[in-house]
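A favour, since you know our structure tokens better than I do. Could you add the entry underneath, on a fresh line?
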Amino acid sequence: MAETVLQMKDVDIFQNDNLILSNINLEVKKGEFVYVIGKTGSGKSSFLRTLYGDLPLSKGQASVVDYSLKKLQEKDIPYLRRKLGIIFQDFQLLPDRSVEQNLEFVLKATGWTEPAKMQLKIEEVLDKVGMKSKGFKFPHQLSGGEQQRVGIARALLNDPELILADEPTGNLDPQTSVEVMKVLQEINQTGRTIVMATHDYALILKYPHKTIKCDGNKMFEVIQKAV
């Protein structure tokens, strides 16, 4: 049986005092690809932020890569995030550093110290996303799709057990979105678990996977044809 990477039981998600999502019961197994869909403001980002420790969990039980979110303390958050890969809609690359320097910054921040090992890892992840020849370039010299490929490479640096992607194609044109999705599909096919928030229904139809919908403060699984 596949191991459970993410589990939530009777979870309520709040932002300050506002209830965003209530009574979430969800299980994600190792190797699954799960979409989280819903209108803007329906709670997709708040859900992901809870998973990587940006919003505290006050009600219910949840575990992410063997960390209890209920018991999560401030000092535990960096360790939790080392086991996660996080991909953002707006890339979040440091503009004054090259692609390789962006990745090196993350490795150093997560405890890597040996330059040779860091260089090998950087080359490995850039190769996986088809960006090995662009490591010397700066973010402003890259297209949106290339920047997002670097964002995906960054998420792979610490061999994460779970990748959280928050609208990773939200700032990309349809063709580039498909190219980025192909990269994510390939990563998923190597056995990595991906939870991806999106409102791009064309991608969901093109690459069908388990789909969870946020609507009316609830989260529920939807059958593909009903999306």
The chain has two domains: 4-83+161-226, 97-159.
